[in-house]
């Protein structure tokens, strides 16, 4: 926990991926992708570059295409706010193997740290529930993060959504490759598919 009594983003992501087994992790724009890379580059990490608002929908597509695999989207509050409509589509499609973890520092980190709507009235957990995602929870402790990480492996009980309150500390950027073809072909290969 930080001095502000909020969770450290890197600890949260490390806990989410500590015992990942066959989990496919999709990183949202910017910081969450850097956090996933800092936890350890992996053939089943799918990094987004320039696709703000698209992480949850990419997660949905992968979850529907690979229903026996646990799919975990790790993104930020700014991206989730931009892609809120995806929560309604996810609830409608009911992918039981999809989990979404939002790292909520209440700021738009990629555009200069402006205060995001989650610092005021926007309640992402309430929005997810209103869209029809029954397992939507607010997380504020590392124990809750670890419990959510275990639930990710249950591919029969999703979709699930967690809004994790993190501190706004600036951390070193750990950048993965930006080669989209490489990223796509690496994950395809690890899942047993030919390169495109």
- Write down how many β-strands occur, each being a DSSP E stretch of 2 or more residues: 8
Rg (CA only): 15 Å
Number of helices: 8
Class based on secondary structure composition and strand pairing: alpha/beta
Task: Provide the β-strand percentage band.
Answer: 15-25%
What is the helical fraction, as a range of percent? 25-40%
Parts with pLDDT < 50 across at least 5 consecutive residues = none
Largest sheet: 6 strands, parallel
Describe this entry's structure for a reader.
The protein is 37% helix and 18% strand. The chain has helices at 9-17, 31-38, 55-65, 77-82, 85-93, 124-131, 142-151, 180-190, and strands spanning 24-27, 45-47, 71-76, 98-104, 107-108, 114-115, 135-139, 160-165. The strands form two sheets. A six-stranded parallel β-sheet has the order 2-1-3-4-8-7, sandwiched between helices. A two-stranded antiparallel sheet has the order 5-6. Helix 1 (9-17) crosses helix 2, helix 1 (9-17) packs parallel to helix 7 and helix 3 (55-65) runs parallel beside helix 5. The longest helix has 11 residues, at 55-65. It comes from Bradyrhizobium cosmicum. InterPro entries: Sulfopyruvate_deCO2ase_bsu, THDP-binding, TPP_dependent_decarboxylase, TPP_enzyme_TPP-bd. Keywords: Decarboxylase, Lyase, Membrane, Transmembrane, Transmembrane helix. This is Sulfopyruvate decarboxylase.
């Amino acid at each position: 926990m930080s001095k502000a009594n909020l969770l450290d983003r890197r600890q949260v992501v490390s806990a989410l991926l500590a015992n990942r087994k066959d989990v496919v992790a999709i990183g949202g724009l910017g910081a969450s992708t850097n956090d996933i890379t800092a936890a350890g580059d992996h053939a089943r990490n799918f990094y987004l570059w320039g696709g703000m608002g698209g992480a949850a929908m990419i997660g949905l597509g992968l979850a529907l295409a690979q229903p026996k695999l646990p799919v975990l989207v790790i993104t930020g509050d700014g991206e989730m706010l931009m892609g809120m409509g995806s929560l309604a589509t996810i609830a409608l499609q009911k992918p039981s193997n999809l989990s979404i973890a939002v790292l909520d520092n209440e700021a738009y980190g990629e555009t200069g740290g402006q205060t995001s709507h989650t610092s005021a009235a926007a309640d992402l957990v309430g929005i997810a529930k209103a869209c029809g995602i029954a397992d939507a929870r607010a997380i504020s402790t590392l124990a809750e993060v670890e419990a959510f990480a275990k639930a990710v492996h249950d591919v029969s009980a999703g979709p699930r959504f967690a809004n994790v309150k993190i501190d706004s500390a600036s951390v070193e950027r750990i950048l993965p490759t930006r080669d989209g073809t490489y990223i796509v072909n690496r994950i395809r290969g690890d899942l047993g598919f030919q390169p495109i």
